[in-house]
Write a structure and sequence with these properties.
The complex is a heterodimer of chains A (about 230) and B (about 425). Chain A is mostly helical. Helices cover about 80% and strands about 0% of the residues of chain A. Chain A contains seven helices and no strands. Chain A is elongated and about 65 Å long. Chain B is an alpha+beta fold and about 425 residues long. Chain B has helices spanning about 1-30, 40-70, 90-95, 110, 115-125, 175-210, 215-245, 260-275, 295-310, 390-400, 430-435; strands at about 75-80, 85, 105, 130-135, 155-160, 165-175, 255-260, 280-285, 290-295, 320-325, 340-350, 405-410, 415-425. In chain B, a hairpin with a 4-residue loop joins strand 1 (about 75-80) and strand 2. The longest helix of chain B has about 40 residues, at about 175-210. The N and C termini of chain B lie far apart (about 100 Å). The chains are: A mainly alpha (about 230), B alpha+beta (about 425). The interface of A and B includes residues 29, 40, 63, 147 and 151 of A.
């Protein structure tokens, strides 16, 4: 259906495309990857706060979140202005619209990372729960998914983008397992707060993994032009 | 008419030829060929020289590239759109650039997702000057199982602006250095911990002894007590320093402070020494500043600094302390959520000042400068420790824990030491007025 199979191909067609538009799309891609690097960083920090109980880094997260938010707004505005100024053709439009959706997913992951760090602060006074190691594995899976989706975006690699789905299944299974462990806990002494907080944490992680899958799907859409 | 046309055409072409040949001669004028008499020989000579020169340059370029490729430092170069043009083996290894193939032109962020590195490149280009940054680099990992084994490294990058918007970046791996210095500091503080208990017992024993001995020996015992106290102080200072460094926030008890009050109380405790040396204090506070800080820690800072100034001032000298509130000229891209006002405090004396070669090191622990001069140079000694070499390191650490900075210079007019302190968290002036 579509002849062009990657953004690179679109970008590198000097004869068919206005060079200004190609440059703008390239700049857009660069900003998205910058934002992606920040989101990865905040995910990494929130993991450390939650799993290693390292509260000294919690302060950094709102700062990162602020930067991510600024990027999100800026990229969205740029996308709109490219659409208005250049009136791009179908393929470019597809690429830009996918970018617009994709930054939303990235921004959501950043938000959840901040939520996770807040949960980590509230969890701190309680003893470490036995299911923390499993949550750590789940969080690492979700981080790997984010890295894969950003890698797929950088390479415009359809195969990589589609491989995220299988990783998502691993996260979903872990979510169910941890949920069962938490839900079926008996003879709770003291407050139920740690259990509630952990349930919220796995919910956040599951959502983050979902958004990473979405990013993968959008990359596949840019490459193939088919929405799955 | 036709003839006229031909002549004009001929004239124009001769002019053009002459002009070109002048240009050509001007270009080749750099080479020494003028002595050649024969026209044809001259040309041949010119070409052979040009070829030689080209070969020479190519060889030079090749050897330089080879050097850079095999350098023990990482090096990479990006174009004006932040696309990676080239990087050497070491940089490939440091940044785990498996995806990148030589000759490929890709966005730097596509091959290595490091926000810090990208920022450094941008900053170097914007400022058009060399920039340096140190950060912890986490290689991105797409495999959850391998993530556990993934090691982060501390990298130091130096960006250099190149022509046409290109930027060259040198990368150094600082991980090992950092680990070594951390291990050293840990060993030192462990040692300090171990020393503290026996020292405290020693002090108790000496104190008991003091009451039980008679005058000739009592003098020795008093001396012993003094030295033990000095040792305890040293150990305590080292522990303080380590604690402040490892976790600054939890060891500070911040409260609103009036700078004038603080300096007055420091001066009060130093007055006996000042009177002995006949040194005066000249304090000016143009903005009547208040600041949110740890009172006893800042007292320690100013006590150490002003005591040093008194110690090295000539008799009848003046120690100047000047405080004012500034708006810093900092990088706008950096997010600084705290108040943007800075309190500047200058402490200036009219002593001998610092030796030029000591200036970069005086805030290091146990730095002593030139041993032969160590008694005459400022900055080695410290009030409570009297030359332990930790005083200024503690001052530096306390100010860093407050988010502030300290700079040491020699004052151009007095020739004495000039210490400039910057502290954030200045309280609003309107509030200040209400307090008074």
């Amino acid at each position: 259906m579509f002849e062009i199979t990657s953004v690179k191909a679109i970008v590198n067609r000097p004869h068919f495309i206005k060079p200004k538009l190609a440059r703008d799309i390239r700049r857009l891609e660069r900003d998205i990857l910058r934002m992606g690097a920040l989101v990865e960083q905040s995910f990494r920090l929130s993991h450390q706060a939650l799993i290693a109980r390292d509260l000294s880094i919690v302060k950094q997260l709102p700062l990162l979140e602020e930067k991510i938010d600024r990027f999100y707004k800026q990229i969205e505005l740029e996308c709109t202005s490219i659409m208005i100024v250049h009136s791009p053709n179908e393929q470019d439009l597809r690429c830009i619209s996918a970018f617009m959706q994709l930054v939303r997913d990235l921004e959501r992951i950043g938000d959840y990372a901040e939520d996770l760090s807040e949960i980590a602060v509230k969890l701190f006074p309680y003893e470490a729960h036995p299911c923390i190691p499993e949550i750590a594995v789940m969080s690492r899976h979700a981080q790997a998914m984010l890295a894969t989706s950003l890698g797929a975006l950088a390479d415009l690699d359809e195969v990589g983008a589609n491989s995220i789905k299988s990783l998502d299944d691993a996260v979903d299974e872990a979510y169910d397992r941890v949920y069962d462990t938490l839900a079926n806990q008996r003879d709770i002494q003291g407050s139920v707060e740690p259990i509630v907080l952990l349930a919220l944490a796995i919910r956040c992680l599951e959502r983050m993994a979902d958004h990473a899958t979405n990013i993968g799907k959008r990359v596949a859409y840019i490459v193939t032009g088919q929405r799955t | 008419m036709l003839l006229l046309g031909i002549f004009i055409g001929l004239g124009v072409s001769i002019c053009l030829w002459l002009w070109y040949s002048i240009q050509f001669h001007r270009y080749f004028g750099r080479f020494d060929y003028s002595k050649r008499k024969s026209f044809a020989l001259g040309w041949r000579y010119k070409f052979s020289r040009l070829k030689e020169r080209q070969q020479c340059l190519e060889q030079q370029l090749f050897s330089l590239q080879n050097l850079l490729e095999n350098a023990p430092l990482g090096y990479l170069q990006v174009d004006e759109e932040n696309q990676l043009l080239w990087c050497n083996q070491e940089a490939c290894q440091m940044l785990s650039l498996e995806k990148w193939q030589p000759g490929q032109v890709r966005l730097l962020l596509e091959v290595v997702r490091s926000y810090e590195l990208d920022r450094l490149v941008e900053k170097t280009r914007d400022h058009n000057s060399s920039q340096q940054k140190e950060w912890v680099f986490h290689p991105s990992c797409e495999n959850a199982e391998a993530m556990l084994e993934q090691k982060s490294v501390v990298l130091r990058a130096t960006g250099l602006p190149l022509p046409q918007g290109q930027v060259g970046v040198f990368l150094e791996n600082r991980q090992q250095l950092l680990e070594i210095s951390q291990a050293r500091d840990r060993a030192f503080s462990d040692l300090a911990h171990e020393l503290r208990t026996p020292l405290t017992s020693m002090r108790l024993v000496v104190e008991t002894l003091q009451d039980r001995v008679d005058s000739p020996i009592a003098r020795w015992v008093n001396l012993l007590l003094k030295e033990v106290d000095r040792l305890i102080d040293l150990v305590q200072s080292w522990l303080d320093l380590t604690r402040l460094e490892s976790n600054p926030a939890t060891h500070l008890k911040c409260q609103p402070l009036e700078i004038k009050n603080l300096i007055d109380s420091v001066w009060e405790s130093l007055e006996p020494i000042a009177q002995r040396q006949k040194v005066q204090l000249a304090f000016t506070d143009t903005d009547n500043a208040w600041i949110n800080a740890d009172k006893s820690r800042l007292h320690q800072v100013f006590f150490n600094l002003i005591h040093n100034s008194i110690k090295y001032s000539p008799p009848n000298g003046v120690v100047r302390v000047e405080a004012n509130v500034n708006i810093p000229l900092e990088d706008k891209n950096q997010i600084e959520p705290e108040s943007s006002l800075l309190l500047e405090i200058n402490i200036i004396d009219s002593g001998v000042g610092f030796a030029q070669e000591d200036l970069p090191h005086i805030f290091q622990r146990f730095y002593r400068g030139d041993k032969a001069r160590s008694r005459s140079i400022k900055g080695e000694g410290d009030s409570t420790l009297d030359g332990s070499g930790l005083g200024l390191a503690i001052v530096h650490q306390i100010l860093t824990a407050h988010g502030g900075t300290i700079k040491a210079m020699n004052h151009p007019q007095t020739g004495g030491a000039w210490l400039q302190i910057h502290l954030p968290q200045v309280m609003a002036k309107s509030v200040v007025q209400d307090y008074i």
